[in-house]
Fold:
Amino acid sequence: MSYHSSGRTQIIIVMLAILGTAWLVVQLFARPDAQQLSGWRGPGNSSASIAAAAEGTLSGRAEDQRGRGLSSALKPHGNPLNDGRTVMTQGYGVGTHAPAEVWGAIDLAIDGNDDGAADPQGSYDAPIYATHSGVVKVTPNSHPAGNHIWVSNEQFKTGYAHLAGFVVESGAHVERGQLIGYVGSTGMSSGPHLDYQIWEMQGGTWVNRNPLDFEPLAGL
Ligand SMILES: [Zn+2]
Structure:
């Protein structure tokens, strides 16, 4: 084989490589699912709904519908004490709940003797229920929250503080309405009550939310 014909072979190989690379680049930018997915991104959209949208795009409409159903179970809703005698003893972003973005919470207790105010007898040992589905993290004797539970999923997490005791262990999966513990006065607390917090994942960080936006005095 002469020098010239070997040189021509090299040129053809290089040209084929360039054409192949150009074809790959065109294929990447032309992917229809990549474009549809970006339409789902926005301030109100969670990573969960983006994942659900991606699943729906890949697997069809039925998968998309299932994804939407799942995300409503992920969102906190209702009263963690699930008791019609519940009263709010401290509001959101005031007193020990300020600043709201750090400690934002509401305090809930029970009016056991129907005089219009919470009382320790009615509140102590009242059952506490998860307000959404998620995985439990239990922290005994923490400061200032005392016996504390996080229930978290990729979209929301809720905090339950000052508990008398736990009935779940770290790593357990719970559904909305599942018993997780009992009202107490552990940690920095002046009487038996539940300190209830809601956090939402927004743009990769947990943002404190006002529990009053999630109907905490309605049934579960
Ligand atoms: Zn509190």
In short: Strands lie at 86-90, 106-110, 127-129, 134-142, 146-152, 156-166, 173-174, 179-183, 194-202, 205-209. The chain has a mean pLDDT of 80. The longest helix spans residues 3-29. The helical segments are 3-29, 32-38, 47-59, 61-74, 100-103, 120-123.
